[in-house]
C-alpha cells in the first residue's frame, strides 16, 4: 500500500510565493490566453496560479500538473478535471477548461477570494454548523456518484468575503471501495483509510475532525505523520465542548450537548457508528443550530442539471447496451478507440459514474506502455478480488488448476 499521498498540515501564515521557486513559474502567457499574475499554492502533484483570461476578460485560477511525465498522474489529473466539471454545486469550486501545452496539462477554474478556514478557527458554534451543513450538501452530490473527497481538511474549505463556503482540491478523490494509497492531511484521515473499504462515512469522519478543529482551534488527533495518527486514534479525543470551555473566550458561546454528541459520532473509529447519509448530517445540524430549513439556491438544480457529456450519443448507447447485456448475465466487451484529444477518457468516466449509480462495481486499471504480458489482466483480477472477494473466488474456482 502506498502512503505517499498524505499531506502534512501547513501553518496558516504559510508564504506560498516564497516557497515556489522562480524556475517553477510557468510562461507569462499560457496558451496565448492566460496571463500569469501570482502563485496561489503548490502541492505534491500540482501548482495553482492566479491568471487573467485575456480572451474572456476575467480573473481565474489555473491548476497545472507538476509531474506531467508520469502517465498515471496525467490520467488522474484528467479524471479530476472531468469529474469536477460534472459537479455543479454552489459549494463546490467550478471547473472550466482543460488543455495541455509543452509544460503539461492544466485546467482553469473559479477564482475564489477570501481565505481557507484554517485561518479562522476557532469560530462560534453556530457559524461552524452553517459551514458544516454547506459542506455536507456538497458531499451529498459527490457521494451520489459513489465518490469520496478524501481530503476534507481545513485548508481545502474556502470561505469567501460574502460568507459562501466552497470545497476545493479534488486531487485525492477516489471511488467507493478499497484505495491503493492513504491520502489526505493526517489529522483528518479516517482510520479505515489504512487498508479497509472506503465509502461516504470516510468523508463524514473528516467532517467531524474539521468540526472539532473549527470549534476549538485544535485538532482532535494532532498528528503530523501517518504513524503518529495510527497511535493517536486508539484513544477517543476529549469532548470538543470542554476544549472550547478551556479557551475562556466570551466570543465563543458554550457548545451545546447535541453538537458535542454529533461531533463525537462523526469521529467514531468504527464507520458503523457514524451517520450514514449526508441528509442525516444536514438535518441534525439544521436542528441543532436552528438554521433556515431548505437547501440554498442552486443545490436542487445541481442534482438535476449537472452538465453531462455532450455528444457521442451512439457511443454512449453502445456502452449502455453492453451494460444491459452484462446485467442479464451475458458477457459484453467494448473497445473504445480514438486519436488523443477526442474525449475517450471523459466518455468512459461519465459512463463509469452512470454504472456506479446503477449499482455496478467499476474497476479502473491504468496500463503503461511497458507493462508486462498479462499485467493488466492480473491487476483487474486483484482489484476484483478486493471489491467482490466472494464472487471473485467463486468465479475462479473452476479454473484453479490453470490459475
Describe this structure as you would to a colleague:
By secondary structure, the protein is of the alpha+beta class. 37% of the residues lie in helices and 16% in strands. It contains 13 helices and 15 strands. Strands 2-3-4-5-7-6 form a 6-stranded antiparallel sheet. A 3-stranded antiparallel sheet has the order 8-10-11, covered by helices on one side.
Report how far apart the termini are.
24 Å
Helix percent reads 25-40%
Spatial strand arrangement across the major sheet = 2-3-4-5-7-6
The Cα radius of gyration reads 22 Å
On the 0-100 scale, what is the average pLDDT? 81
The number of strands is 15
Assembly context of the chains: single chain
Content of β-strand = 15-25%
Structural class: alpha+beta
Taken from the alpha-carbon principal axes, the silhouette is globular
Q: Which stretches are low in confidence, meaning pLDDT under 50 for 5 or more residues running? A: 8-24, 300-310
SSE string: EHEEEEHEEEHEEEEEEEHHHHHHHHHH
Briefly characterize the structure.
With 403 residues, the protein is α+β, with helices and mostly antiparallel strands. The chain has helices at residues 16-19, 71-85, 125-144, 200-216, 226-232, 240-247, 257-266, 278-289, 299-305, 313-327, 344-357, 375-387, 389-396, and strands at residues 2-6, 29-30, 34-42, 46-53, 58-65, 95-101, 104-109, 115-116, 147-148, 157-159, 165-167, 174-175, 177-178, 181-184, 197-198.
